[in-house]
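Notebook entry, structure prediction.
Reason for the run: the old model in the group folder had no record of what sequence produced it. Starting over properly, with the input documented here first.
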Amino acid sequence: MSIIRVALDVPLATLFDYAVPLHCNVLIGHRVLVPFGRKQLVGVVMECVADSELATDRIKPISQVLDEVPPLSADVLALLKFCSEYYHAPLGTTVLSALPARLRSPQPFTRSQKSYKQALRYALTASGRMLDLENFPKRKVVQRRILAALQVGAISLAQIRTLSSTATSGLKVLLQEGWVEVCGEATEAAPKQAHVAQLVGSHTLTAAQQQAVDAVTHATGYASFLLHGVTGSGKTEIYVHLMQHFLQRGGQVLLLVPEINLTPQLENYFRTRLPDVAITSLHSGLNDTERSHNWLEAQSGRARIVLGTRLAVFAPLPQLALLIVDEEHDSSFKQQDGLRYSARDVAIFRANQRGVPIVLGSATPALESYYNAQNGRYQLLRLQQRASAQARLPEVRCINISNVYMQHGISDPLFAALGEQLQRGEQSLIFINRRGYAPVLMCAACNWLSGCKHCAGKLVLHLQDRRLRCHHCGHQEAVPRTCPSCGNVDLQPVGSGTQRVTSALQEHFPHARILRVDKDSTRNKGAWAAARQQIQNAEVDILVGTQMLAKGHDFPNLTLVGVLNPDGALYSGDFRASEKLFAQLVQVAGRAGRADKPGLVLVQTAFPNHPLYRALHDHNYDTWAQTLLAERQMAGFPPFVYQVMLRAEGQQQSTLNAFMQQAREAALPLAQSVEVYGVVPAALSRRANHTRLQLLVQSDSRRVLQEFLRDWRPLLETLPAKKIRWSLDVDPLEF
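New structure, fully documented this time:
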């Protein structure tokens, strides 16, 4: 018998030795079913060794080789090993978290009927192609959308479902009418050949766009490019031209986006522009069957373009030739639980590992990326004008709320601007990054506030269903009729959320078509796709939304953006708060005036002369970035230092304090070129009945910090930590 070393999804930083019977053929990267205590666990073979430190009689044989799926490739395993070592997470947890849930199950992976249906593609029949959509009944909105999408070419069931929450029913009707037919199974098609990546509807690139495309396509081997383009400058057009170039050379392309909401429209756009190229998506919005199916499409090479959120960075891509990270500054690329990796940074390592170029795109690059471009680690590509000759960057004005009358958080000048938009038949967006009706409910008599009994946060008022909800732990309760403290009936909502703003606008503009877009209103599957279609069809006059609407969306008729309550970040304890605010405001401002109509952005603020708002007014990212870099250098913050945060939480505060103090005492003797700070409460000091503490360690050398962590982590694992959950967060973004 030979011996293999297996990675298992257990919180132990080790591999486990198992024996392989002679009749079994096991390769590195194969999934195997092994006994572990009283359980049977799925693991991944990481090594084959000649002998083991364990006695022969203690080495258990594997139970089964799960070889119905090809083994993970050597480069994917090397990528996962790097993540385990750099982020100091158990190798088994790291490896297994990169697999779809179906492939982590002990049950043998078989293709279900549901998976078969997901793979089917649909196309118009001869009679369907003869339909005139102009004369098609307008009340059949969903069927019209499906027919319009199919006019471009055959699409899958997953794509059809993105058109509406009731798209499956609409498809059934079209099949019965004989206008649509099943045209085959996508997964059985051979991998696309290099020469078939034809670009449909090619736009003429501007000189700056062409320079960016040429720079990337002429690169040999690994190269990192920072594509710094203003909103609406045509970064997506550059992406599609780069995709075509590398697809024609026989490669695969991985495109990472920060949020699920951006994937459907990008996927549809790329399918329209590259209709003969197999495209698949990987994100948490897919069910287990869809995700495993798409993952296998990527592994087999049939999917030539993989579009996904952060976990897609681990997708197996045998012919990977180009990586693109869109909105690379977005904090959503940083995983905040389990393996706390940055998908952007892992993508850069993967590009270097494979010797291929990577493009980081953003209108407001992260300061770390901008600094790397300034010192030559990345090549900076600039797009300083909007792609459309008629489109101009929007005018930005600040409304000083210190001396104007406000109604439910909306100023009279903003109300007046909205009224003008309605008269012109143009769309407006009111941006407030807080959902619910009001952030807190207060008693006017005793100043009682609606605090969460499980968290250090407040319960948010949701007036429509008369509930108070905690957006941190999920606790909710009915709105009290009287003050729980003094019995007063005069309870007042304080502040504004999307629901309150929507109500105020409906009261002020009773005939306007107002749509609220936030996590609550788009909870149901297909709700966001339907809302986006309403906006595109000009069926909405005023949008009220959170950061879901801030980036990546192109609404040609939207010309006014109003921003409410942005000032909180100016006096936040998080040193990254102003950087995040500027990026958010630039993104949401970029939704205005993207076509031939001029755009206007009105920002309600008590500090209209703040340097941040002046830079926003001038559309001058560079000046603001240089200001922040000077501050960071003086204060000793990233990108001039490297950090790791020890985070811990537990129900017993005394036990938690003891653990963190012992962790600090263990760190001090190791800290030669490393600075160890004191133990402090987290920003949200209590969550779900758990106290949360943190300890920051930093160094001006990444190598020195990693050496310190390799010595410190084994000591942490020996500390008594009963009922304490702790983790190391390398390169933390949240404090």
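Summary: The longest helix spans residues 702-718.
The old model has been moved to the deprecated folder.
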